[in-house]
Structures are given as structure tokens and as C-alpha cells.
Design a protein that fits this description.
Order of helices and strands of chain B: HEHEHEHEEHEHEHHEHHHHH
CATH architecture of the largest domain in chain B: Alpha-Beta Complex
Oligomer: heterodimer
Helix content of chain B: 40-55%
Largest sheet of chain B: 8 strands, mixed
Structural class of chain B: alpha/beta
Number of strands of chain A: 0
Largest interface: A-B, 38 and 37 residues
Number of helices of chain A: 2
Distance between the termini of chain B: 47 Å
CATH topology of the largest domain in chain B: Spore Coat Polysaccharide Biosynthesis Protein SpsA, Chain A
Strand content of chain A: under 5%
Number of domains of chain B: 2
Number of strands of chain B: 8
Chain lengths: 87, 411
């Protein structure tokens, strides 16, 4: 079945709009109700608070050292394979 | 364009592998090496933030007898000089240079040169007035100079007022990509690590040899980076040396700052590209990375050109195959340059920082990418016009600081 140009155009607009909306949805959620633990803490003691949230909310620098090692390895393995897939 | 894509992926892969190995990117240095250090703080109308930094300077753990702090009050019209004077009256290692209206206001390079004339330290560190460093940052930065090949060091910058609004959040993501991934990868791979003009420093002997900062270049930091490499030295990135900055808070300020960066970077590209290619002190990989770094601000302009050409060819009814190529090309270019690779890089940087929730904001970086297209295009056009008509294109637009970052500090 071949759609006429107007229908195709409308479907294209709806499709693109939906895609953009879905793509931006997580960002809108995070902007509306931030749950990120930033700003990153660089001090050896807690200096910073987020008064608007009424709580100490810092990404601890030690978080980096407690990374899920296995997950990092998995991601690195996947990336290492990518050039081969392209070839 | 594809080279940039590959570069982004290589950088990201490198820091992931570093994270696996828990590899330290710093050369190690020697913590017992404590040279005399002069810290230059150029300040122009910074009354809202200068007190915070100077207070922090008094809390530094570096031996005060080896420390000299020089505040260059660059013809401020507010209370910057008065606040700085209060600190210099009580701390003998803090000195102020007052620049008159005639001398001042010529940009950061000019202010730094004025400070350098009075500096006595073996190592010259620089901090912008809106910054807030770790207390032991001088030790972390200066210890790298024990290696005679290291001419310049650079620490990591972290956004202080991140949660203020959407702009500061997006700048934070850009900073994560730039420092957690780009700088670290460049350092690990032995490429061109960039000196950011602040939270870093330079060996005095090298700076004297180079003749100080080039005041005719808006990106005096990038210029210094390349002059140091061309002189046979290297820039060392010290990721452990961290410092907060107050990010721009509005899209207007973002424009002003990035416009200055873009124009200055383009000036450096015109000045150094040929020198980098002909250099005997740089290897092939350094030359390639140096050229990519120098020309990075031309990429948004190229993307815009491809969009315009694509649109024109659609209307000009060119042969169908050509139309197809030029219709697909902008999407192709955008996907490669503006989308996947840098987004992926920032995402991995946020992950490595333990900021998985911040990754939710990644799609919004599309807006900063789009915003950078007119910024870089205007910078290039203005630069071209000023060259053709011989006008001075070095007007320094200062980034305003509101001091809102103070609310995050319990002093």
C-alpha cells in the first residue's frame, strides 16, 4: 500500500515528534525532580550542601573507587569488539 | 569528521581501561619536592567571589614560606581591590597589583603578565577568581615538576553551582567529558594534554623562555600549551588535583564564554598548525592530536556548511544521486560529530564519576551542540572580517560571576 504524500508527511511529523519526546523524557524527569547526587565532592570533608533539597547531597569521590568492576570490564569488552563489527 | 569520531572512542576506551587497571594517570611526582610557588589570580570585578578564593588560599597546606600569592586587580570598578587588600594586610605572602584603567582591561593574558613580573616562585600557578581549590592542591600540582620534562601541569575542574539550573547542569556534563575522559586519555596516551589557563601552572624557566603569555591571543591557555610542546616540554594532567569553578548560569553568558574560546582557539589554529606539522619535538600521534585539538572549533561550522549545501541541492534539483548524498550527509555528520561519540564520552565520564543519574540529562547536550554552531560560525566570521579589514579582534569579554556558588560552601 502506498500512502499519499500528506499522510506520509503527517506520520513523519508524529513519528519524529514522538521519538524526540521519548528521547528527552528521562532528561525532563531529572530536571523536574533531580536525584543526581552532584556536585561531585572533591574535599576530604563535607563542605557543600544543597539547601533547596534540604539535605547533604554529594557524589562522594570514593564512589569512583567502589565502581562495579565487572560492569566496567563488560563495557570495555563490548567497545573493543565494535571496530570488528564495523569491518 | 570521522577522525574526530574515532578519537572520541579511543579516548573513552582508554579511560575505561585505565579504570579497570586503577591506573594513575599522573606521572607520580615526588611529594617531598616542594619548590617555591607563586599563585597568580587575575581578577576584574570579582567582588562576589574573590573573598571566597582568598580565604581558601589562607587555608592551603603548602608551606607559607614557599608560597607567594599575587592578586592582579585588573582595573576593577567594584570592591575587588578592597577585599583583596584586607587579606594582603593580614597575610604577608599575599600581594596585590593594582592596575589602572589605562593599563588594565586588556584580557587575562595581560593581567597574568603583570603578575608574572612580580612573581618570585620557581613554579607559577594560576587560579581564576571564581575557583575554590582543595587545600592540598599546590602540593599535588607542584610535585609533578620534579620531572624535568614536565613544563606545565593541569588539574581537574569540577562545577560548584551545578544544581542551579539547566545551563549549569549541562556545563557540568561538558566538564566531565572534558576532564574525566578527554584530558585523562590524552595524558595516558602521551598526546597533547591541554592547559586550561587555571587550576594549573607552568615552570618559571619555561615561561621566561617563552616570553610570558601572548596577549594577542584570546585563548592564551591553548597558545601556551602549544608553545610549551613546541619547546620540547609536556603538559601533565593531575586528576587528583581538583578545584571547583562557578559555571556560567545563563545562555547569554554561555555564548560570551564559548565565543571567546572559539575565537581564541581559531587564532591558535592559524598560529600553530603549521608549526605543529613542522615540529621536530612532536611525534606523529602528537602532531595528529594537536591538529585535531587546534581545529575542533571549526567542526560546528563545517556541520552548518553541510546543512546549507544539503538544503540548497534539494531545491536546485540536482541529479537524484547527488541530492540523496547531500540530504543524508548532514544527518551523517551530525550523528558522528554532534551526537554519538561525544555523548558516549560524557556518559562514560559520568559513569566513572559515579554519576549515573546525571546521564539522564545527556540528550539535552544536543541543544548545547546546536548552540555552538552559531557561536563558532560568528567567531570565524568575525575573525575573518577583522583580518581582512585589519581591525582589533581581541576584545576580552569577561565572564560574570554571581557568587551563587557561595551558597554551597559552609564556611
Amino acid at each position: 500500500m502506498i500512502l499519499n504524500p500528506i499522510t506520509t508527511f503527517i506520520l513523519l511529523i508524529i513519528g519524529v515528534s514522538t521519538f524526540i519526546f521519548i528521547m528527552l523524557l528521562p532528561a525532563l524527569f531529572e530536571l523536574k525532580r533531580p536525584k543526581d547526587a552532584g556536585p561531585r565532592m572533591i574535599m576530604e570533608y563535607p563542605l557543600f550542601t544543597q539547601p533547596e533539597l534540604g539535605r547533604v547531597s554529594m557524589a562522594n569521590v570514593e564512589e569512583e573507587q567502589r565502581l562495579d568492576q565487572k560492569l566496567v570490564e563488560k563495557i570495555a569488552d563490548i567497545i573493543a569488539v565494535l571496530p570488528n563489527l564495523e569491518a | 569528521m570521522i577522525t574526530y569520531l574515532v578519537r572520541h572512542y579511543i579516548f573513552t576506551l582508554t579511560v575505561l581501561k585505565d579504570a579497570q587497571k586503577h591506573k594513575k594517570t599522573a606521572t607520580g611526582g615526588n611529594a617531598t619536592y616542594q619548590p617555591t610557588v607563586s599563585i597568580l589570580i587575575p581578577a576584574r570585578n570579582e567582588e562576589k567571589v574573590i573573598g571566597r578564593l582568598l580565604q581558601r588560599m589562607t587555608e592551603l597546606t603548602y608551606p607559607k614560606d614557599k608560597l607567594q600569592i599575587i592578586v592582579v586587580d585588573d582595573a576593577s570598578t567594584d570592591n575587588t581591590g578592597i577585599i583583596a587588600e584586607q587579606y594582603s594586610n593580614t597575610q604577608n605572602y599575599i600581594k596585590i597589583i593594582q592596575r589602572s584603567r589605562k593599563e588594565g582591561g586588556r584580557g587575562k593574558g595581560s593581567a597574568l603578565n603583570a603578575g608574572f613580573k612580580q612573581a618570585t616562585g620557581e613554579i607559577i600557578l594560576c587560579f581564576d577568581a571564581d575557583y575554590y581549590p582543595q587545600r592540598d592542591i599546590v602540593e599535588k600540582l607542584s610535585k609533578e615538576f620534579v620531572d624535568p620534562r614536565v613544563g606545565v601541569v593541569q588539574g581537574r575542574i569540577t562545577v560548584l553551582n551545578e544544581s542551579q539550573n539547566t545551563v549549569t547542569r549541562l556545563v557540568t556534563l561538558e566538564r566531565i567529558g572534558g576532564y574525566r575522559v578527554d584530558q585523562q586519555a590524552r595524558d595516558s596516551l602521551g598526546l597533547i594534554t591541554q592547559f586550561g589557563g587555571t587550576v594549573g601552572g607552568i615552570r618559571r624557566s619555561l615561561l621566561e623562555r617563552l616570553g610570558g603569555w601572548d596577549e594577542s591571543i584570546l585563548a592564551e591557555d591553548t597558545d601556551l600549551t602549544f608553545r610549551a610542546y613546541l619547546a620540547g616540554y609536556k603538559v601533565c594532567y593531575v586528576k587528583e588535583a581538583e578545584c571547583y569553578e562557578e559555571a556560567v548560569e545563563s545562555w547569554q553568558d554561555y555564548w560570551k564564554q564559548r565565543y571567546r574560546w572559539a575565537k581564541g582557539h581559531m587564532q591558535c589554529a592559524f598560529k600553530h598548525s603549521k608549526r605543529v606539522l613542522k615540529s621536530n619535538s612532536l611525534g606523529f600521534r602528537e602532531k595528529l592530536d594537536g591538529l585535531l585539538l587546534l581545529n575542533v572549533y571549526f567542526m560546528p561550522v563545517l556541520v552548518l556548511c553541510s546543512w546549507i549545501i544539503g538544503a540548497l541541492l534539494l531545491f536546485l534539483k540536482s541529479p537524484q544521486w547527488l541530492s540523496m548524498v547531500w540530504t543524508i550527509m548532514p544527518i551523517f555528520l551530525y550523528s558522528f560529530v554532534g551526537n554519538f561519540a561525544p555523548f558516549f564520552e560524557v556518559g562514560i565520564g559520568a559513569y566513572l564519576d559515579g554519576r549515573t543519574r546525571a546521564q539522564w540529562l545527556l540528550p539535552l547536550l544536543i541543544f548545547t551542540f546546536l548552540y555552538n554552531i552559531p557561536i563558532c560560525t560568528k567567531a570565524l566570521l568575525d575573525l575573518a572580517i577583522s583580518k581582512i579589514f585589519g581591525r582589533n579582534c581581541n576584545h576580552w569579554t569577561k565572564t560574570p560571576h554571581s557568587g551563587n556558588g557561595n551558597t554551597y560552601i559552609n564556611s
